[in-house]
Design goal:
The complex is a heterodimer of chains A (about 450) and B (about 575). With about 450 residues, chain A is an alpha/beta fold. Chain A contains 15 helices and 14 strands. Chain B is globular. The chains are: A alpha/beta (about 450), B alpha+beta (about 575).
């Protein structure tokens, strides 16, 4: 049976979606191709990208997924690494049948893979958690963690409202970063619901380190390992002092946020206050300082929250035809820690051939420990040299002055000097929507 | 007619710990004495200015006018107010914050025997009791301020951090410690990193335990064997006190506040004596390291208390007088608090480690209280710290192990004038320069006198100790490759031309005759400590992030609340 054979090659399409991720993996079998879409989102599109870039990308995906004989287009699997907008906004289907989300849904994927934290039953309001993802004693904690993730959307919303109200006092650069992070962390309800619908019933897989991704059934001859995120039991194995108070911390932030987003927020109803024009001179310097501090506070919260969300990201390792392809989404070191604590996983990662650069090349999503494992790094261009692919857009995230710019200069230097480095920055949209890389298998 | 003496203190109502600690359904409150002054609306006094602006709602509250000290109320507008009045009136919140900040400042000034400056150039610290709707509170040197957040709690009622005695005292301590030892926020070692937080927790907790109202309440919460005004002896063993005074108070404290920066009391109480913590990776994280210091100190407090109670006479067979038990606990907390603060003058101004701080406590206490016969505190501190593997930095003498050694070498006082040495940094610098060899300074470094402070300290027996404390600091910047000349180890992956700044410094304690009694220092060219320091700084990203990143108390508290681990080694 031809379908049971191994694929002969892979075509990887890294789409230019600006600041976001969209990778289409096409596994070529003798009989037909099989397609897996890893993420489809953007929070900032490149200049001159033209109208409806995401819809054009979706149409291109449909085209690629259409069999050569003109049969029904078919996308076999969707992987949504985590719920950030720059990874899932394309699944939004509110614009009707021509919206990017509707186009992807129309490709009728057989499988939708997401992290365990996205399970529809992991609902803090109903008190359920994903069966099998947590040990018995961790039920309440898992629920609290999922609840904290929900709170983070509320916090983002509140921060955006507060920042907008006080924008004159916050400063342009801080406001820009708050807005960027705030919007990325807003709940993208339409996209989440579309993913949920696509993954309804047995088509949905919600996974954690070591669990079955379901992709192996879709991709005969391909081994797919889930290396992250760990569930809470696994996290506890490496962090004795797990942040028990952290979930509560986010809850209180969310509730406080709801207070400040009211139209006329008031804490002490009967207290005498000054009107904005009455402020005594001796308070003005301090009030100005406080407003600026508040802006920095909001930014700092957003950065922390952004990291927590990144660390729910799926990490997938594809092994096929003697090649290893690593797709870590936006996972940062806290997510990676569990996998990297296992000697067997570290050995497994030594001969990775293709590495999708984590979190658009940020300073903390390619842990130096991980980078140090890759044996195929080489200063010389040669066969078998490590291939790295980064989907990114400079000027959107972080600052050069604080050495937090994305992509981080020192990381890009290392990627360029020690690997065959591909970046979506090099894609000229007038010519193509994506960078196409073909990897033959033995 | 003889002039009427002006009052020296003003007595103000505060919430004893936080609104969560109640007795018979009422919020436990206390009256505390603070230095008297005629305050302007705010309160706005000579060291503290409360500006009640809320950035989240853009509201500036009008301050209350304060009655004169000589008025009938004695200057306390909230004497006898109901709980609701206290909780719902931002004016009371302002008073609560003002009073606790002033009380903490007064404690420092008493312990050190002199005026104490904030960690910035101004004289009046700004206090914002409702700075933002967020579970955080912090000291900001740049803004010369303490900012306290508020947030809706689990019950739906608002939680105001400015109403928590320990939170306000903690933040005030950061501001005062920053003024006394400005280099303690330098990244140096996990212990220096943890000291600011740990020390602020110690001051905050002991300030709370020094209030008899609080001690009485926690004894009552836990004492099953209580009868009228008597407490069963069985409820007052070391273990019972640990349960009641530490865990008991932790249970009663506003639980939601632990979301602000972790739960200092509960965590420290959970760290029962063990020599293993210091070696565990988990305690490499500075805020966790600080918890070991807090645990050691709180255990010393309980041990002394339990020992004192053993010697108390029984009012009835098996029962002690509640009043005496409470009085002992509050007095011991007060004494230990004074000891802890006074030790700062005897601690090296750079690269502090817990072993240095222990020697500093032992030495400073021995100077003012040579016999230590009442509490036997020094021996108990040595024992409890040893139980956490904190051994004094100095060997000391046979009678007083752990105290700093007298200065080595032949110190010359011939060319300096003691009168000037009590206040003039240039005169002290001349002394240092003349004695640079016996003081074993690193001669190729820049050297600066940071402060000269004459002190008049009063001992427990009324004995007055006059001292002058001067603090100097040295620094030199070298390329990594040059460090081998000082036998300092360099991380393998550090560039040879990476510029590394080494710091060193010392505290000089002069007696009342101007003779040098102690030279407490960490040498700039201390091979072992500098190697460790460099390794730590490299690992935690100092060379990439810069010094300011380590001075951000707001960020530090959030990291602590979230138990965030520093992963700088993995970053690009």
């Amino acid at each position: 049976m031809a379908q049971r054979k191994k694929p002969t090659a892979l075509t990887l399409r890294a789409y230019q979606v600006g600041f976001g991720d969209c990778f289409l993996l096409t596994f070529h079998y003798d009989s037909a191709d099989r397609h897996v879409l890893i993420d489809f989102g953007s929070t900032g599109q490149p200049r001159n990208s033209g109208p409806k870039l995401m819809a054009r990308v979706a149409q291109d995906i449909r085209k690629v997924c259409t069999p050569a004989d003109g049969g029904t287009p078919k996308l076999h699997a969707v992987v949504a690494t985590h719920r950030h907008r720059d990874h899932i906004s394309g699944f939004d289907d509110t614009g009707g049948p021509d919206s990017p989300g509707a186009i992807i849904a129309g490709l009728a994927p057989d499988l939708v893979v997401q992290p365990w934290t996205e399970h529809p039953k992991a609902n803090p309001e109903t008190g359920a958690v994903t069966r099998g993802t947590t040990a018995k004693g961790l039920h309440a904690q898992s629920l609290a963690f999922v609840s904290a993730l929900q709170d983070m959307h509320a916090i983002s919303q509140a921060v955006l409202v507060e920042a907008d109200r006080r924008k004159s006092a916050i400063g342009k650069t801080t406001l820009k970063e708050i807005t960027f992070l705030g919007e990325d962390n807003l709940k993208n309800l339409a996209a989440v619901k579309n993913l949920m619908r696509m993954g309804k019933g047995r088509r949905g897989k919600y996974v954690h380190f070591g669990s079955d991704s379901g992709l192996e059934k879709i991709l005969p001859g391909v081994k797919v390992r889930v290396l992250g995120p760990p569930n809470l039991k696994q996290s506890d194995e490496i962090t004795k002092q797990r942040a028990r108070d952290a979930d509560e911390f986010w809850h209180f932030h969310a509730v406080a946020g709801r207070l400040t987003t009211k139209k006329t927020p008031k804490v002490f109803r009967r207290a005498a206050t000054y009107s904005a024009t009455q402020t005594p001179p001796y308070t003005r310097w301090f009030i100005k300082r406080m407003r600026s501090v508040r802006g920095e506070q909001m930014l700092s919260i957003m950065r922390t929250l952004d990291s927590v969300m990144n660390n729910t990201s799926l990490i997938l390792l594809f092994e096929v035809g003697g090649k290893k392809l690593l797709f870590p989404g936006d996972a940062q070191i806290e997510n990676w820690s569990y996998a990297l604590s296992k000697p067997s996983v570290r050995r497994l990662l030594e001969d990775v051939n293709l590495y999708k650069v984590g979190h658009h090349g940020s300073l903390n999503a390619t842990p130096k420990t991980l980078w140090g494992l890759f044996k195929n790094r080489s200063e010389k261009k040669k066969t078998g040299r490590l291939l790295t692919v980064c989907s990114t857009m400079p000027g959107k995230h972080g600052k050069t002055t604080s050495k937090t710019e994305v992509p981080r200069r020192t990381l890009v230097e290392a990627l360029k000097s020690l690997s065959d480095y591909h970046t979506t920055e090099d894609i000229k949209l007038k010519e193509s929507l994506c960078d196409t890389i073909t990897i033959p298998f033995s | 007619m003889r002039p009427t003496p002006q009052p020296r203190t003003r007595s103000l109502t505060i919430i004893a710990q936080d609104p969560g600690v109640k007795v018979k359904g009422k919020v436990l409150r206390a009256k505390i004495d603070i230095p008297a002054e005629e305050v302007s609306p705010g309160p706005w006094g000579y060291r503290v200015h409360v500006v009640d602006y809320d950035t989240s709602t853009a509201t500036l509250y009008k301050p209350r006018k304060y009655p004169s000290l000589n008025s009938k109320s004695g200057g306390d507008p909230y004497a006898g107010a109901s709980d609701r009045q206290l909780l719902d009136d931002p004016g009371f919140h302002a008073q609560n914050a003002y009073a606790v900040v002033m009380k903490t400042l007064a404690r420092f000034e008493f312990a050190l025997g002199r005026r104490v400056s904030w960690g910035f150039r101004g004289h009046q610290i700004k206090v914002a009791p409702h700075a933002f709707a967020e579970a955080n509170a912090f000291y900001s040197e740049r803004d010369e301020a303490l900012m306290f957040g508020y947030f809706p709690g689990l019950s739906g009622r608002m939680v105001y951090s400015c109403l928590s005695h320990d939170v306000v005292a903690h933040e005030t301590t950061h501001a005062l410690l920053d003024g006394l030892r400005e280099r303690y926020t330098d990244p140096s070692s996990p212990e220096q990193g943890g000291f600011h937080e740990g020390f602020a927790d110690i001051v905050a907790l002991l300030s709370v335990y020094a209030l008899p109202d609080v001690v009485g309440a926690i004894i009552d919460f836990a004492s099953e064997g209580r009868r009228d005004n008597m407490i069963a002896r069985g409820d007052l063993t070391l273990e019972s006190l640990r349960r009641s005074a530490l865990f008991g108070l932790a249970e009663e404290m506003g639980q939601e506040l632990s979301a602000m920066r972790g739960d200092a009391l509960r965590r420290s109480a959970a760290l029962t004596p063990s020599t293993e913590y210091m070696e565990m990776d988990e305690f490499e994280e500075p805020h966790r390291r600080g918890e070991i210091l807090v645990a050691a100190m709180m255990n010393a407090f309980l041990t002394v208390w339990a020992n004192r109670l053993k010697g108390l006479g029984e009012v009835e067979r098996g029962f002690l007088d509640r009043g005496r038990v409470v009085e002992e606990g509050a007095s011991i907390a007060d004494y230990l608090l004074t000891m802890s603060i006074r030790a700062l003058d005897y601690a090296p101004p750079t690269n502090l480690e817990f072993c240095d701080y222990l020697s500093a406590i032992l030495t400073s206490d021995r100077e003012i209280n040579p016999r230590d016969s009442k509490y036997n505190f020094r021996q108990i501190l040595r024992d409890t710290f040893a139980a956490y593997k904190i051994i004094p930095a100095a060997k000391g003498t046979r009678e007083e192990p752990g105290i700093w050694d007298s200065p080595e070498g032949s110190i010359s006082h011939d060319r300096t004038h003691f009168e000037s040495m009590q206040r003039d940094p240039d005169e002290v610098f001349r002394f240092i320069w003349d004695n640079r060899r016996p003081l074993r300074l690193y001669e190729d470094a820049y050297t600066q006198v940071l402060s000269v402070r004459p002190c008049l300290r009063i001992g427990p027996d009324g004995f007055a100790l006059r001292e002058t404390v001067a603090e100097y600091f040295q620094q030199v910047t070298l390329q990594a490759a040059e460090l081998k000349n000082l036998q300092i180890g360099v991380p393998d992956d550090m560039r040879k031309d990476e510029e590394v700044t080494l710091y060193g410094g010392g505290a000089l304690i002069f007696d009342e005759f101007g003779r040098l009694k102690y030279h407490v220092r960490n040498r700039l060219n201390d091979r072992e400590r500098q190697t460790q320091r460099l390794k730590y700084l490299w690992r935690y990203g100092f060379f990439r992030r810069g010094r300011d990143a380590f001075r951000n108390f707001s960020f530090m508290h959030r990291q602590r609340a979230l138990s965030t681990t520093n992963r700088a080694t993995e970053e690009w």
